[in-house]
Design goal:
alpha/beta; 2 domains
């Protein structure tokens, strides 16, 4: 296709372990130009995800890198209040998202950073980050290292909400939605998240406790999470907290 002028560059998106990427590039690296990777500063040094190793392999084979999930599906930009305060004190003029995007865009072999945006403010912030782009300074890099550790310490389940596990699940359990509520509950215990868990997901969708521990989802998780084990923790967490948080509805009989 390249010889015929149909394609200028050829690449692929990768969601597995670094050892497999190494094997693929050693065998077929010469025919590729691009690898699309999930990269962000939270996953960068995580041994379970191996993001740094992925990038280094692409550099070794002189391949361009296109970044997906620079904000880890919003996990990075929705931290607890303590982390938000840290960012504000470090530099209140720049958004949390802009730091995450600049982390990726500052890497030499990164050519494109894909970022999801849900409103006009997000888009304008991203445009401003690129139009006035500044590579991360050493001080900023060290700060993000600290924030990555704080985020990891406060994140109950490092789910990126890609949804591949749901497609593979025979029961069609909305796994990322449960993990999202679990993380929110852990970071914001005062929130009314328990009511949402029981009223919204368990009533309207497949309950988390219907997991059969078949393990089918494990092969599809890009974050290498032990999903059945974490789902069990989710169920226990919300059952234990429900007695103190979820109030039964009251009725007025006329």
């Amino acid at each position: 296709m390249k010889e015929e002028g149909v394609a200028r560059k050829i690449g692929f998106s990768f969601h597995d372990k670094a050892d497999l990427l190494k094997e693929v590039l050693e065998e077929y690296g010469d025919m590729f130009d691009i690898v699309q990777l999930e990269l962000n500063y939270l996953d960068w040094e995580d041994p379970a995800i191996e993001a740094h190793k992925f990038y280094d392999l692409c550099v070794e084979h002189d391949l361009d890198v296109y970044v997906m999930e620079p904000l880890k599906r919003g996990v990075i930009v929705n931290p607890n209040d303590e982390i938000k305060k840290d960012f504000k004190e470090f530099n209140g003029e720049k958004s949390i998202a802009s730091f995450a995007i600049r982390f990726c865009a500052s890497l030499e072999h990164v050519k494109i950073v894909l970022s999801g945006m849900s409103n006009m403010a997000d888009m304008l912030d991203n445009c401003d980050t690129y139009e006035n782009f500044e590579p991360l300074s050493k001080e900023e890099s060290e700060f993000l290292d600290k924030m990555a550790q704080k985020l990891a310490d406060n994140l109950a389940v490092p789910c990126s909400e890609c949804g591949y596990c749901v497609d593979a699940c025979p029961e069609m359990i909305p796994i990322p939605e449960y993990f999202n509520l679990y993380n929110t509950s852990k970071n914001q215990p005062e929130s009314n998240i328990y009511r949402l868990y029981f009223n919204k997901l368990c009533d309207e969708k497949v309950p988390a406790d219907e997991c059969t521990y078949c393990g089918t989802c494990l092969d599809y998780c890009t974050q290498k999470i032990d999903i059945p084990e974490e789902l069990e923790k989710v169920v226990e967490h919300f059952q234990e907290g429900s007695a103190h948080t979820v109030k039964k509805p009251s009725f007025l009989i006329l």
